[in-house]
Amino acid sequence: MKFHLLFSLITISFSTYSQSPITIGHTETIHSEILNEDRVLEIYLPKGYEDSNKTYPVLYLLDSFLNFRHAVASAEFLGFDRRIPEMIIVGIRNTQRNRDLTPESPKLDLSQRERLGTVGGADNFRAFLEKELMPHIVSTYKAAPYKIISGHSLGGLFNVHTFFKQPGLFDAYITISPSLWYPNDVISQEFNDVFPNPDKMNQTFYMTLANEVSGNMRGNVIKLSGEFENYINTHEDTGLRFQYNPMPEETHLSVGLPSVFFGLRFIFEPTQYKVPKTEEEIIAQGGPEKAIENIVTYFNEVSETYGFEVTNEYALTDMGFALLKHEDFKHYALDAFKANLDAHPKSYDAYSVLGMAYEKLDDFQKAKENYEIALNMVMKTENPEWQFYKSDLDKIEKKIKAKTDK
């Protein structure tokens, strides 16, 4: 009897626990006067969003029903790996996909028009994005000015059309196997005619292509790629960045996930800083103090370019550890870690690495003080690696005791 009662309680306990939802976002509905319909949005907000006072770049995701989950996963993983900043993702559910994502085309033959149904609404849909959706996101969320759009297939066609018609609407484009079989006069135009001021072009355009074999889609994608390359190569003053990444091992559907993953990496590649590691590299930058100053300056400039704060925490941390490895420079490591703490006073890692520096320099008491702060801060979070911070504190306390006893 006791066994059955215990088993029942355990079963109830596991049943209750197993029903806790795992949530990656929420939905909301806005009404569009331009499209004369309601549109459902899927919204992802990064961890810690509610308690943060910073702003975040926004990824606008077409075909959200198919792409929202893997885009969130890619953004979270790349953020965890320090490859990209945290971001807001706004997925846009479809109502009439073919209508919204295609430009009007007199060259579309009758059979194609019958198969696609209502087409030609790309300009109207772009107006909805610019005049209704974006203002709503800016007024409702902590949105930075930096905007990315990701479009797949017909969504990629929409990206290309938008770039030619209104390139500044988005700062970056992830264009995935674009349906350039669709008759679209814009891609036959000369880049120099469409973009006569290369010094004002600061967008990033990333494009992929799956194992597409039918029609002239592949040829038009390759042609467009060549136009981008020629334009950039002949205009040294342009800020336009472009990468074409063919993925012949992927299908038209599967290409979506790796395209978003690698597209985000390419867009935020300039946020990756090469920290000088060797004595020669540090001296070449003007010495330890100048090397630290260079990091702060670089990230201030990058933050200004992107329009939101791009963290310098990891670069300053790496700089500190690099300095610790060189006998002549190791005392400068404290300057790097203190600069990091000044910039990120709410970071438990900033206290932790400063503690490590003091420990390396045999100042055990200051190491302990910083380890204690780090542990107290990390215990208030859900970080499963809190034991490492506890281990650091235990270890330094043993060193202090051994030194005192001696």
TrEMBL record:
Signal peptide: none annotated. Keywords: Hydrolase, TPR repeat. Belongs to the esterase D family. The keyword Phosphoprotein does not apply. GO terms for molecular function: hydrolase activity, acting on ester bonds. PROSITE patterns: TPR. The keyword Hydrolase applies. InterPro entries: AB_hydrolase_fold, Esterase-like, Siderophore_Hydrolase_D, TPR-like_helical_dom_sf, TPR_rpt. This is Esterase. TPR repeats lie at residues 348-381. It holds the Pfam family Esterase.
